[in-house]
Write a structure and sequence with these properties.
The complex is a heterodimer of chains A (126) and B (466). With 126 residues, chain A is α+β, with helices and mostly antiparallel strands. In chain A, 63% of the residues lie in helices and 13% in strands. Chain A has a single domain, classed as Orthogonal Bundle (Arc Repressor Mutant, subunit A). A three-stranded antiparallel β-sheet of chain A has the order 1-3-2. With 466 residues, chain B is mostly helical. Chain B has three domains: 5-83, no CATH class; 107-180 and 202-294, no CATH class; 302-432. Chain B has 15 helices and no strands. Chain B has helices at residues 10-23, 30-49, 54-65, 68-78, 100-129, 133-156, 160-179, 196-217, 225-262, 268-294, 302-326, 335-357, 367-397, 401-429, 434-462. In chain B, helix 1 (10-23) runs parallel beside helix 3 (54-65) and helix 5 packs antiparallel against helix 10. Classes of the chains: A alpha+beta (126), B mainly alpha (466). Chain A: Residues 16-90 form the Transcription regulator PadR N-terminal domain. Chain A: Pfam families: PadR.
């Protein structure tokens, strides 16, 4: 399924922070976890993850350190900082407001119309 | 670990190639590339487990990584500073190059700073023991430049024999100029007027030393044209960096001076007695170190300046030529005019040399080469006009040491530029290669050293140490 670019961008930060709040991780594992969480329906462009991680690092929300993986390769690990946890809590509140509002919209839609696909109904009303 | 040839399978070769593509993006550092490579390898391993072979897995993994242009654009947005080449003086241990590089750079800086302090102490001792400025001027370079030479001798691991030869050459020169019974002026006069020859020696001995330093810089391979050109580049960058450092130093000193004078503290004695003897050699050595550290990171600035000023200098010379030809006979034909002409030719030579130092020898002749030809031609014409006016009248006033030194330099410069002009002309017309021009430039450089040596060593006795 294709998910709009802006939506991916908006949700990327809370997703990464949330995954890291669970314990330290590294780029590939974070991407894999996102795919798992979305049941494989959300696929990021892998390369874009790293500029995002670097931005979060610069903002002080996460910290990076180089370590050695099991296979002997050098690997950059990320951990969430206290600032990151605070930011995550804030994002969580924001997203729950958005999600609640959306939920009600979906609810109203399915109540008001006889199961027509949402976008078309919306267009009809406009 | 991956360097083992046996392990260099098709996948390794493909990853190598991919890494090469990634590393070509300026916004992506080697650390980022390493991080993404780790990602790629994990992805390939997972896809392998899912049943794909190496080639297929690699293709899918690269595809998922996304368009490199877009990724690199994202990196650039996050790290816009990376688009400006930054000079990392003491690199932190990055995952790729490991810690030794960083430690090496620290040791390097330590050696350099100790040498700078050593040069400062040597200069301070000279200041305490010598009273007149002429002696200071004469001996200063002999005390400072060996420390810079020591740094390069250490860096290049110069053979002991070459070190000994160069050191004794410098020492002999120092002995000669110090043992000569120069006329230093009346010692009872608070501002003595030293003779011509001692000033000429003080002016020319550093040139000889600078060429000796070039031998050290080239690691003993001073016959090599390429090494000579490296030294020319080094000298140009050094001058630029030195000027910048001095400018910064002057601003700091001026500010300190101003604030201290507000509270009635006289900063001057400290500047004279302690700051200058340590700051001057320190600036030289640090500038040299900076030039060495940045040479492969930051674009050379001297050739850029040369390119900017070449058209302007050509215009200036054409204006001079018109003025000289149209104006009346030269009002005062003396050594001032000669020195002025020497300076003009030196500027032209620098412009030429630094443009050449940055030119791709294989590129075909272009508009800039023609501009250079114009520059050289105009300079030669200006000098010829001045020289003819001069030679007519020089006999009337006789030859002094200053006049002969200035005239000699003028002739050497004239030969240098005339032949360079001839070679450039041939190159622009397509009958010669650029390499010939380059080789002439570097090949001629020792002539200046020889002339400087003659002026410093042979002139004083020839002109009775006047």
């Amino acid at each position: 399924m294709h998910i709009d670019k802006d939506l991916v961008a908006a949700s990327a930060t809370p997703l990464v922070l949330g995954i890291l709040a669970d314990g330290e991780s590294y780029g590939y594992a974070i991407g894999k976890r996102v795919a798992e969480l979305s049941g494989g329906r959300m696929q990021w462009t892998d390369g874009m993850l790293y500029p995002l991680l670097h931005r979060l690092e610069r903002q002080g929300l996460i910290e990076a350190s180089w370590g050695t993986a099991d296979n002997g390769r050098r690997r950059k690990h990320y951990t969430i900082t206290q600032d990151g946890r605070d930011a995550l809590a804030e994002r969580q509140e924001q997203w729950s407001v958005v999600a609640d509002a959306l939920k009600q919209v979906w609810q109203d839609l399915s109540d008001g119309s006889a199961g027509l696909p949402a976008p078309r109904t919306a267009q009809g009303w406009a | 670990m991956m360097n083992d040839d046996a392990l260099r399978t098709g996948l390794e070769a493909q990853i190598d190639q991919w890494r090469g593509f990634v590393r070509r993006r300026r916004a992506i550092t080697s650390a980022d590339a390493a991080e993404m490579e780790d990602h790629l390898r994990e992805q390939v391993a997972d896809l392998n487990d899912g049943g794909l072979d190496d080639d297929e897995a690699f293709l899918v993994a690269v595809k998922r990584m996304g368009n490199l242009d877009e990724v690199s654009h994202e990196f650039a947005r996050e790290h816009s500073d990376r688009l400006w080449k930054q000079l990392v003086l003491v690199p932190q241990g990055t995952p790729d190059d490991g810690a030794p590089g960083g430690i090496g750079r620290f040791r390097d800086l330590g050696v350099l700073l100790s040498l700078a302090i050593g040069a400062g102490i040597a200069l301070k001792i000279l200041l305490m023991s010598a009273t007149d400025e002429t002696t200071l001027l004469l001996n200063g370079p002999f005390l400072v430049l060996p420390f810079l030479a020591a740094y390069f001798a250490w860096k290049r691991a110069l053979p002991l024999r070459a070190t000994a030869v160069l050191l004794s050459a410098a020492a002999i020169l120092a002995l000669i100029v110090n043992l000569y019974p120069f006329d230093l002026g009346d010692p009872t006069d608070p501002y003595p007027q030293p003779g011509m020859t001692v000033l000429l020696a003080a002016l020319h001995a550093p040139v000889v030393l600078w060429l000796l330093l070039g031998v050290v810089y080239a690691g003993g391979h001073w016959r090599s044209d390429a090494r000579r050109m490296d030294y020319v580049r080094f000298t140009g960058e050094l001058l630029v960096y030195l000027a910048l450092i001095q400018l910064g130093g002057m601003v700091l000193t001026g500010l300190t001076f101003g604030v201290l004078s507000l509270v009635g503290i006289d900063f001057d004695p400290f500047v004279q007695d302690w700051l200058l003897p340590f700051a001057l050699p320190g600036a030289l050595l640090v500038a040299a170190w900076l030039v060495e550290a940045k040479k492969s990171v930051v674009e050379n600035i001297a050739p850029v300046l040369a390119r900017v000023f070449t058209p302007l200098a050509a215009l200036m010379l054409l204006a001079m030529l018109v003025a000289l030809l149209a104006g009346g006979p030269l009002e005062s034909v003396d050594r001032e005019l000669l020195i002025l002409m020497d300076a003009v030719l030196l500027v032209v030579l620098f412009l030429l040399l630094y443009s050449i130092s940055a030119r791709d020898p294989l590129a075909p002749p272009g508009i800039f080469d023609q501009l250079q030809l114009l520059l050289v031609g105009a300079a030669l014409a200006v000098d010829a006009v001045a020289l003819t006016a001069m030679l007519v009248r020089i006999a009337e006033f006789g030859f002094t040491a200053n006049k002969v030194a200035a005239l000699g330099l003028n002739l050497i410069l004239l030969v240098h530029l005339a032949w360079a002009g001839r070679l450039t002309f041939g190159f622009v017309r397509g009958s010669r290669t650029f390499v010939a021009t380059e080789r002439w430039q570097t090949g001629y450089l020792p002539v200046y050293g020889a002339w400087a040596l003659v002026v410093a060593v042979a002139f004083p006795p020839l002109f009775a140490f006047a």
